[in-house]
Every structure is written in C-alpha cells, then in structure tokens.
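In the laboratory, one determines a bound structure by crystallizing the protein with its ligand and collecting diffraction data. In a computational setting the workflow is compressed into a single prediction: the sequence and the ligand go in, and a structural description comes out. We illustrate the idea with FE2/S2 (inorganic) cluster.
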Amino acid sequence: MPKFHSLRIKEVRRETDECVSVAFEVPEGLKPEYRFIQGQHLTLKTKLDGEEVRRSYSICASPFDDTLRVAIKKLEGGRFSTFANEKLQVGDSLEVMTPMGRFFTKLDPANEKHYVAFAAGSGITPILSIMKAVLQREPKSEFTLFYGNRRTDTIIFHEEIEGLKNQYMGRLSVFHVLSRELQGSGLFSGRIDAEKCSAFCDMLLDPQEVDEFFLCGPEAMVHDIRDTLTSMAVDKSNIHFELFIAGLNGKAQQKQERKKAQSVNAHIQITLDGNSFEFPLTSGQDTILEAAQKAGAALPFACKGGVCCTCRAKLMEGEVEMDVNYALEPEEVEAGYILTCQSHPKTDRVVVDFDS
Ligand code: FES
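The predicted complex, in structure-token form:
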C-alpha cells in the first residue's frame, strides 16, 4: 500500500525559469520503501493556506543513481507548483508518498532494443528517468528522443540531455522540436502532432523496427501520436503513455454533469489494511472515493483524474461505472480492478477491497 512519510528536501535546483527539480533526503530505514522503477512518480502533500494539497510529479532520476528527485513545472494558477517554484527551500519537509506508477517496461542487460520517446515540456521528466535507466542498464539498447518545447531556453534538462548524448554516443539520438523559435528545418519547427510523427517515421525511423514507444505530454499530443503509430501497424502493447492531468476532460465532465441530477441509494463496503467499513453513497455525482472521504475514511489517492492508479482497488461484489480510466490495463479491468476515484455504483451494494 502506498504510504506518506515526511522527507526533508536536500536540494532545490532551478532547471528553467519555470521549473525546479527537488531532491529528497531518504533516511536509511526508509530506503527500501522509496526504491523506485524508472518512469514512476511521487505524490507530494502539504498544507497551503490551511488546506491540504496533493500533487503527483514524475521522478526524473534513474533508479541506478542514489537520488530521489522530481521536477515541478510552474503552471499558470497552479497552487502547488507556484509554491514549489517560489518558496520551497533546502531543509523544508514535505509529505511524500512512496513511488507509484506503471510507465515502464522491464529492463534486462541482455536486451538489444530500440526505444523511442515523444515528450513535450515537462513530459520529459519520466522519460528522462527511463532514458537514463535504459542507457545505464542495457548496454546494447538504443534510445531516440523527440522533445517538443517552445524555445531553447524553456527546454527542461537541456544540459543533462546533452551530457547523456556525449556519454552514450551512438546510442542516444535527440531531436528537439521548437514551437516558438525558428529552426533550420521545418521538420523540427512547430508542435509534435500526428503530422510531425508521420514525418519523423518517414524520414528518421522505421516504426516497425522500434521495440517500445514511450509518450508523455498533453492528452491531445499523446492521443495523436498513439493513433498515428497504431495506424502504422505498431502494436498497442508496445506504446506506453503517461498523460498530464489538466482537470476533467470533456468526456468525464459530461458524465459528471449527467450524474449530478441522479440520486442513488447504494451501500458501499471497503476493506483497507485488513479493516472493513461501510457507508452509504447517495449522490450520483460522488465517486466511491469521494463518498468514502465524506464518511471519514482515509483512502489512498493522488490525482483524482483516473491517471495515477493510486486509488486502485478490486471490486469484489456489485457493479460500478468509471468516468475515465487512463491507468488500468485491460487485463486488470477484466480481473475486476477499478479506480475508486472514477467509480460510481451501478448496483445497490458494492464491495471494494484495497488489499487484493
Ligand atoms: S487517484 Fe489517481 S487514478 Fe484515482
């Protein structure tokens, strides 16, 4: 089960004008709990103006470096990201959840794979972790990165990526795509979208010879690239993606609006850490997670957007409908797993187990 611990900040590094990376000190006794896999994220929790705020940020370090570091890009109106960029200092402490996430594939030093990543803006964060881990752990594998930004000065981890190119010469190729700065070639000007992806596949790589694709950035970009790659007969199971959470998308919004009007009369039973508790769920708008919180239960959650998987549990009895699901694999849904932050009861009784 994911758990929060208070960790002291040991370094705050300015990466660009709008992004800092924050490294945490992990006490010896907690090291096993904070062992992570490349591409995973941490949920940070603190109180801002007396209110609890939680946000998830991807780890930008490799699991083979002895560092636990996340990158936090300042978003317009972003409470936590502004606080982190303007106020966080070495010596401060934050509540940090143990690492979560499935944005990775298993590494093996015997692999001779070609990995390709498409990242935009701070979408580079988990990709950097994956890229470093692949280069360190799989000496015969290659990595190609397409990285979209506005201008050269907004490229997060620019120097670090250049350093990796020199260190792993011949195994790492990086193509920067800039939307607000003229580049020598039109191919690398603009945004990474379906058209660009097709052009890259025509001129720079054969998608059939790529073993794994990793995509991270805004939803529209991720969907565009995924659709383009699948239209080129790339197997879906080789396309891994992580989305930015930009609030409820259209589909989820519509579903919530529809449910607002409904009243329901469901009884929910939850098991967590061996303890069971029950509560009624009466508003069509409430998810199981929200209703449990209203009833005073502390369930694990982070994004509340169907992305991070922290709230995953197994449905033991009854039926639910999920607003969105960006986190569970089809096999998990098949096996009865649900995202409680997205689930609404469809039957009068629903039994959910967080321990399964
Ligand atoms: S809290 Fe992130 S998927 Fe539910």
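Residues 117 and 214 are 5 Å apart (CA to CA). Keep in mind that any predicted model is a hypothesis to be tested, not a measurement.
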